[in-house]
Write a structure and sequence with these properties.
single chain, 166 residues, alpha/beta, 2,3-Dihydroxybiphenyl 1,2-Dioxygenase, domain 1, 2 domains, 4-stranded mixed β-sheet, 3 helices, 22% helix
């Protein structure tokens, strides 16, 4: 189980309340609380980006369900990230990378339970690290950063402060 940061007491309280509710012990007021968010990013090549993220996360390599849209999911089915072909389906913010700089104002931040292996996979991919592994002083966890094939800034953080970067 991950450790909660003392720097974020309100967020910690909400996480604990949601955990209790999931265990059937919580307050009925939280029944309408948001359950999931799907982060969708515009990419130039869904299949290429899909493979890049699967490799980084240590997932079996599969093909996206569609040529213009793919969902990267955790082993329990939780959607981690959605990849959307630029210009497909006419969603205004996903029409073209020329209308903005991919990643500006966005940090893709993933907590992983296999930090050491994620770092090895990142180094093996040949992608230059934007930030070498270090301890984040706010969370006490190890993290590193790199850019994906479309230039998005991707931060990988250990799920717990006890995991090292061996």
């Amino acid at each position: 189980m991950h450790e909660l940061s003392p720097r974020f007491p309100r967020e910690n309280a909400l996480c604990e309340a949601l955990k209790l509710r999931a265990e059937g012990q919580g307050n009925a007021e939280l029944s309408n609380a948001m359950k999931r968010t799907w982060t969708i990013i515009g990419v130039s090549d869904v299949a290429r980006s899909f493979e890049w993220y699967q490799s980084l996360f240590g997932q079996p390599l599969t093909r996206p369900a569609h040529h213009d849209f793919g969902q990267l999911c955790d082993s329990d089915g939780t959607v981690l990230l959605c990849l959307h072909q630029w210009g497909a389906h006419e969603h205004p913010p996903l029409m073209s990378p020329e209308h903005g700089r991919p990643g500006n104002g966005l940090l893709l931040f993933f907590r992983v339970d296999d930090f050491s292996m994620a770092l090895k996979r990142a180094r093996a991919s040949g992608t230059r690290l934007e930030e070498e592994p270090r301890v984040n002083p706010s969370t006490g966890t190890m993290e590193f950063a790199l850019r994906d094939p479309d230039g998005y800034y991707v931060m990988i953080s250990a799920l717990s402060a006890t995991e090292s970067s061996d």
